[in-house]
Amino acid sequence: MKKLSLISFGILASLQFMNAQVISSKKWTDHFSYNNVLAMKEDNGKIVAATENGVFYYTIATGEITKLSKANGLHDINISAFDYNPQTKIGVIGYANGSMDIITPQEVKYVVDIPIATGYSGSKKINHISITGDQAVVSVGYGVSVFNLKKLEFGDSAFFVNGGVYEASNEATIFGNKIYSVTNTGLKSHEMNTTFPVFSTWTTEIPGSFKHIDAESSSLIFSSATSAFIYNNGTGTPLPATFGGIKDIVLSSNNIVVTDNRIYTFSLNGVSLNAASMGEDCNTGITVNGKIYGGTMVSGIKEESGTTYKPSGPYSNSAYKINLYDNNQMLVSSGSRENRFNQPPVIPNKAGFYYFNGTDWTRPSFFSTSPIITNVLDAVFNPADNSEIFFTNYTVTAQGVYKMKYNANTKDFDFVKSYNLGSPGDFSHRPVGFASDPQNNLFVSFGFNYGNPSIGIYDRGTDDFTIKKFGISSVATQTPVYYENMLWLPLPRTNNFIVYDYKNAANLSDDVDYILTDANGFAGNSKGTLSVAFSKSGDAWIGTDSGLRILPNAAAEIKTPDPKVEPIIIEQGGLGEELFRDGQVLQIAVDAGDYKWLSVDGGGVYYLSSDGQQTIKHFTKENSPLPTNSVTDIKVDRKTGKVYFVTFNGIVAYQGDVGDVTSNFGNVLVYPNPVVYSNFKGKVTIKGLAEKTNIRIADAAGNVIHSAVARGGYYEWDLNNMKGNRVASGIYFVLMTNEDGSDKATAKIAVVN
């Protein structure tokens, strides 16, 4: 039985960093994919595997799997290189942006950047890392650098440059007292001495285009794309096999492993031992106790028998939108749009959608077997039949709404039907996103409908969609939002916003649509509306590509002759400033306490007070586990308070402080408690409160030293008294009542200064 732990390697005791702040905490979890294994190392019956967004550690004897990601210790995503030393238990991760993480048994340290040659403007991606003892050789686009794992600093670098043209080191390793590097022009070497940084003193041992290299104490191997060689004093002895496209070569103390379309093993003197097919593409392979393990592209670690090992996660890190359902179920869409929310990507992502049942992830086999090009922007359960799933396919040639049905026997989703909704071969109806109402009516928005946005209304009787076209020019739409018996629809390519009062979904003759424009208060420089969410008081929070607007009492105001949207004005240094002025507000979500989560393109995620006047938290990829600063979707589980952030590079979740809030108290919790100043210098959180809570905090003598009114289910106390001074060490009593005094709660806080 496979066991899963979230503690990285099972041995990390603390986290320390160089040139970086702590970005992870127990409040964060990841929903990354661990399918695409880039590199593996074996350590006494355990396999350490690096994937795109994290590392996992598989213990063969027990089946235990631990994982390490940006949510619990690492500092970045897009891993491009990895090596691990079983003797010292040190691993080195290289990222596509040129940074590195050094993993030791005690901590993770962050190395912000590699040395860069003067005048070099190419990619900083780390191509390869090879550890020998306390030295790690790092291959990049300009050549090689040596990193000292004891001193945690870079030593010499060799810039492979001739006449101002840089040559990349594809891979490099230490063998004897030399560093060997394979490049597109040859196998090159240099002793680790004072002239090492001077490229003109390097020796081209064997000319040719070479991709991979590895070494042990007495052996060196290298390869081109189609041949692998054992190095012997300036010559290469080819291994006795024909390869079509070598992905990796690995040298251990007892064999050579070459990964091609199969995984081949050879003795150290080049005798062929075995060849195994994993039934799918692999990036790398190793042997453990005579058994071959493949690092696959889509299934994690795989044995010859076909058994796979990996942490639970979606098929791919590509994610665009998420929908949450009861029992921790999730549907994740993997698509994308370009050119101001109009064009599908040039190379569509065929990943489709991923379904999480609360325990396991499923990707329908349809997306692997069907020749149809897919770009899924949204996937939802049929509100009238949760065994069916509808998804939107936003492409040029195969656009339409598709329906699938869950097959309990195969534990897969079977294709049922597609709804083109346009003339054969045209691209006039590109479906974007779904909404549903309490009567289980299903709606879908369409863009590029001959210049007019439209809504499709699903008719269960005819199993088809009726199209409602709006009389406004705009070739793109967003996902509609249902509120107060109307659909609220942002238009990302025009400075407009549609509200559709459909009244009776079965009858289009009585419907009414309302259109907001810049004349209603949108910024004059805005080119489109992007998102909408509703506060508890019924205000519409509308995100545009040039800021934020509020439509107060939206359901009633939209029906007035001249509804007005308004910016939120905050005070900055005594002057009024428009909140998120000129920022692209991609998504807005409201939690159970009426606090707002907003993602701003390039600016991360903001957590705002209910009125927007205070920024409570601001998460970025620099200070949190967010994979990027452009979050395409936010969803809040109002029962648990967990907030999901979706990006094109993966999904992370944050355990918020506001769960299901009512007029009475829930399970009141104070943390941290006790508050020891030497360990914690932030605010104390009190959660589980009523929707409106009157708070008084008293000292042991009964003196009230702090009072407040909390709204939204939680409160943060800065440990200051009414005069603004930090309270003394001691026990403090928190006395709380709800709004009408019908419910009460108490708590104690211990303060140690």
Automatic annotation (TrEMBL):
<feature type="domain" description="PorZ N-terminal beta-propeller">
    <location>
        <begin position="49"/>
        <end position="202"/>
    </location>
</feature>
<protein>
    <submittedName>
        <fullName>T9SS type A sorting domain-containing protein</fullName>
    </submittedName>
</protein>
<keyword id="KW-0732">Signal</keyword>
<dbReference type="InterPro" id="IPR026444">
    <property type="entry name" value="Secre_tail"/>
</dbReference>
<dbReference type="InterPro" id="IPR048954">
    <property type="entry name" value="PorZ_N"/>
</dbReference>
<dbReference type="InterPro" id="IPR015943">
    <property type="entry name" value="WD40/YVTN_repeat-like_dom_sf"/>
</dbReference>
<feature type="signal peptide">
    <location>
        <begin position="1"/>
        <end position="19"/>
    </location>
</feature>
<dbReference type="Pfam" id="PF21544">
    <property type="entry name" value="PorZ_N_b_propeller"/>
</dbReference>
